[in-house]
Design brief:
single chain
Length: about 160
């Protein structure tokens, strides 16, 4: 079973349909085509950075005559995006004002949406807490004056 991080849009920014479900785990597309995957998920700075680092490593390896080293280091960038790509998405959503609702475990995204809908419906059905009743200070007994020794003092008697 997979874990999905449920991200809710900023307050007033949309309805429940805009809720984002981000699967927590390795992403194969992020590993295979890292810059494209990052750009697809609107992680523009990360996509440009990944593309630049991969290009620089490839060119550097070619200039030094050890092409396989440049390719291996570019593979490490792809591996990083595969492992941490979903975390980068969650961080980007937080920067945009989204808040984390929680985590839902499900077999696929459709099941995660159903579980989230059921859990939010259960939260809506809870009754409102009763208001706290505070006694009126005007009806309280006046403060007792005089000496009292523990349980031997009877209020109202001298």
């Amino acid at each position: 079973m997979a874990s999905y991080v449920v991200m809710e849009p900023p307050a007033g920014g949309g309805n429940a349909e805009a809720t984002a479900f981000v699967r927590d785990g390795f992403t194969w597309l992020g590993f295979l085509v890292a810059p494209v995957w990052l750009a697809w998920h609107r992680l523009w700075v990360e996509a440009l950075l990944a593309f630049a680092v991969m290009a620089i490593l490839s060119v550097l390896g070619e200039r030094l005559g050890i092409e396989w080293v440049g390719s291996a280091l570019s593979l490490l960038v792809s591996l990083y995006v595969g492992l941490e790509g979903q975390g980068l998405r969650i961080s980007a959503l937080r920067r945009r004002g989204w808040r984390e609702w929680g985590i839902v475990e499900a077999g696929d995204r459709g099941d995660a949406e159903i579980r989230h809908a059921l859990e939010t419906d259960e939260d809506d059905d809870e009754p409102e807490p009763m208001p706290r009743i505070v006694p009126d200070a005007n009806l309280a007994r006046p403060a007792q004056t005089g000496l009292a020794l523990g349980l031997t003092h009877t209020p109202g008697r001298p």
